[in-house]
Amino acid sequence: MTELEKRAARMKWDPPAPGTEERKEMPASAFFSPSTRTFPYKIKIDGEWVISEIGLRSAISVANFRGNTVISARASKILEDLTKDEVEQSTLAHFGVLGMRWGIRKEEKRAARAERKDTAWATKGKGAKITEKARTASAKEAQKFATETAGAPRTSSGHISMTYINQYNQKLAQLMNQRVGEVSAPSGKILRYVAKRGEVGVHTALADQGYNMNQVSKGIHASGRIAYRQETVERT
């Protein structure tokens, strides 16, 4: 570790919340996912953005919780390289304190609690009711659009064309997003709907403030992978 990295390892890990001006002012290089400004792992010291060991561990924990193996692997490799010299040059002399669990940080616990609250809110609470109302109010108009533009064409085997289904899903997601407006989950994330790929309907998603939903306008697969892209998104 450099001296700055050692200082960063001792500093409190408290990155700006998503959607804040402070978050927007952070350089893209401070995030593992610059396009969405998520998974930050650097901290500013003396005007320089430095890798934070605690930030890396936080990114790994959140990525694993969300099933994002790509970011988890990247962060783990950087953490391994960052701490390799320290492990070789020193002996583990800290035996912990009563109740301590290795690798668990307050920030990680906080993130996990927020995820659970958001999921409950979107699947069983107020968010679920809002979704059902938006779906019912939008279904008729979406069906009319799809019938007029595609006419529900069928394949040679008699199944409804996938192109038709995707058009219907995209229109339904657009209408539902317009109806709900800016509805916030407990964590401050925004309730959004994204077209499914391969089956009729939409996915319920929780997006960070200012997240560009146009990049998922073509829909996402059940696995969470964005259609025609390798990036994945968090869904409830």
Count of helical stretches: 7
Using the alpha-carbon principal axes, give the shape: elongated
**Main β-sheet, spatial strand arrangement:** 1-2
Report Rg. 22 Å
What would the average pLDDT be, to the nearest integer? 81
The CA-CA distance between the termini, in Å, is: 38 Å
| Major sheet size, sense and barrel closure | 2 strands, antiparallel
| Structural class by helix and strand composition | mainly alpha
Strand content: 5-15%
Helix-strand string: HHEEEEHHHHHEE
Extract low-pLDDT stretches. none
Describe this entry's structure for a reader.
The protein folds into two domains: 102 residues, no CATH class; 97 residues, no CATH class. The strands form three sheets. Strands 1-2 form a two-stranded antiparallel ribbon. It has a two-stranded antiparallel ribbon with strand order 3-4. The chain has a two-stranded antiparallel sheet with strand order 5-6. By secondary structure, the chain is mostly helical. It contains seven helices and six strands; from the N terminus they run ααββββαααααββ. Helix 3 packs antiparallel against helix 4, helix 3 packs parallel to helix 5 and helix 6 crosses helix 7. The protein is elongated, with a radius of gyration of 22 Å.
